[in-house]
Amino acid sequence: CALLASCLYSKMAYKVKSTKDQSRYDDMRKQARIYEERSVYLQSKLYEENAALAMELVVTEFSVWDITISPLECAHENMMLDFISQSCCQRRLNKIWYNDIGGSLKGVLKKGLLNGCCFCFDTDNEHDESKLRKFVCSPLARFGLHYAFFFAALVCYSAFLLTELDFIDGLQSVGPYEWIVYIHLLGDVLEQYRHVGLKEPKFPTDLTDIYESKTLLKHSWLYRVKSYLYNFWNILDVISYILTVTAMLVRFFKPTTTNNLTRRFYSLGLFTMYMRFLHIILVERKLGPKIIMIKEMVKELLRFIGILLIFMMGVGVLYHANMYPKHEDMWNSAGWTYWRIWKIMYIPYWQIYGFNFLDSFDANSTTPCTTIQSEWESNPDIERCNRYDWVLIVIAAFYMLISNLLLVNLVIALFSFRFRRVQENSGKLWRYLRYEVIMDYRTIIPAPLNLIIRPILSCMSIYRKLRRCRHGNDVHNQKTDREFIYAFGLFQNIIYCIYKNL
To answer: Ion transport domain: which residues (predicted)?
Structure first.
C-alpha cells in the first residue's frame, strides 16, 4: 500500500506540475517521498527479521485497490531507486539471475558448467543434471548466449558488407554471411515482438497460491509498446531493424550495379547494432555506470541540438543570401541531394568544430562554376559562382565567437552537470537497470534458437489445451523454465541423432 500511495502521489504531482501550481506540487512530492521511505523502512525491518520471507514478498503479486502487481515491479515502473537498491531486492534479483545455483558468477560457472561436464561422463548423476538444467535456464546463461549469437551476427554482418554486397540475381546469389544475418534478424524480431505483444507470466513464488487473486487491471498493449520504446536500447533495436529491412527491400526490389543506396542502409544498420552491443557492458558493476553516463549525455545532446539548429539555420541563410543573391532554385527537381538546404547548413555546421571556411567566401571559390542561371538550373552538377561580400567575414567572426566559446562550453557544462548527477546515483541507477536486464532475459530465448524452440513450445501448449478439453479439468500451465528445459532437451536429442548418423 505504501508503494502504491507513493506512486499515486507522484502521478498526481506530475499532473499538478503542468498547471504551474508549485506549492501543491511540492506538497505531493513530499507525501510521495514519505510513503516511499516508509516502504523502504518496512522492507528493511522485515528483511532483518525474516530474510527468506522478505525476498519472496518483493516478487509476489498482490491485489491492492483493484491493482495486481508485485512490489518490485511497482517500484521499477515508478523509478523508486531507493527501494530497488535495498539488499533484499538485490539478493532476490541475484537468485533470479543465477537461478539459485550460486551467489556469484564464479560459483555459478563452477556449479553449472563443471557439474554439467561431470554429467556428460556420468549420466546417472541426477544432481549434476539438475545443476546443468538450472544453469541453462538461468537469465545469466540466456543473456550470455544471446550476446554470443549477437556477436557472431555482427561479425557476419561486417563480413557480408565488406565482401558479398554484389548485384543480386536471385536467391542463389545470396551468400552464407547474408543468410546468417537474415536468420538472426528474423529470430530477434520475432522474440522482441513476443516480448512486447504478449503479457509476461507472473513470477511464481512460494506465496503465489496464498495471495493469488484475479487481475482486475492489466497493462494494455499500447502501454507495453510505450514502455518498450521508453528503453534507450530498445529504440536502437527498432532503428537497426528498420534500417536493415529497408536495405533488404532496396537490395532485392531495386537493385543496381553499384548498390550505393543499399550499402548506405546496411552500413547505418550495422553501426546501430554495434552501438546496441554496448548493452552487454551494462551488467558489469564498474563499467555499467559509464554506459549510463554516455546514454544520459546523448540525451542531453539531443535536447541541445534544437538550439544549434536555430543558430546554424540563421547564419546559413545569411551566408547564402550574400554569396548567392536571387537564387530561386532552392528545391532542385534532380533529387533531394541537390537541395540548397544542405549548402545552407554545410558551412555553419563545420564552423562549430573550428573550421573557418574563409577561402569559401572569396569570389568564384568553387571551380568549375558558372554565372549563367540557365546552366546551373539545368545541370545540378555545375555549381553557381559565389559573390564576395565583406559582411560574410563579419558574420563568420561573430558566429564562431558565439558557437565556439558560448555554445560548445554550454554543452560541456551540461555534460559535467549530468556526469555529477549520474555519478552520485551511479550505484542505484545500475541496480535499477540491472532489474530490467534480469526480468527481460528471464523469458527470452536467444535468437536464432527461438526459431527452433518456440515451435516446440507452441506444439506443447496446443497439446496441453487439447488434453485439457478432452479431460474437462483445469490443468495448470507448467512453468516457462520447465518448458524451456524440455524443449532444449529435445533440441539436444535432435543434434545428437544427427551427429550419430554422421
So the answer is: 221-425
**Maximum distance among all alpha carbons in the chain?**
92
The DSSP code for 353 is T
Cβ–Cβ < 8 Å for 369, 382 = yes
pLDDT digits (tens, 9 = 90+) for 183-196: 999 999 999 888 88
Q: What does the pLDDT read at residue 206?
A: 53
Helix (H) or strand (E) holding 386: none
450 in helix, strand or coil?
A: helix
> Which residues neighbour 440 within 8 Å (Cβ) at sequence distance 6 or greater?
195
Cell 557476419 belongs to residue: 156
Helices assigned H by DSSP within 218-287: 221-230, 232-253, 260-276
For the chain, how are helix, strand and coil distributed in percent, rounded to 5?
75, 0, 25
The amino acid at residue 96 is I
Query: What is the pTM (predicted TM-score) of this model?
Result: 0.79
Residues whose CB falls within 8 Å of the CB of residue 83, separated by 6 or more in sequence, listed in order: 3, 36, 39, 40, 43, 71, 75, 89
- Dig out the grid coordinates for 415 from the structure: 555534460
Is residue 327 classed as helix, strand or coil in its secondary structure? coil
Query: What is the domain partition of the chain in residue ranges?
Result: 2-98, 105-283+440-501, 290-427
Residue 474: strand pairing partners: none
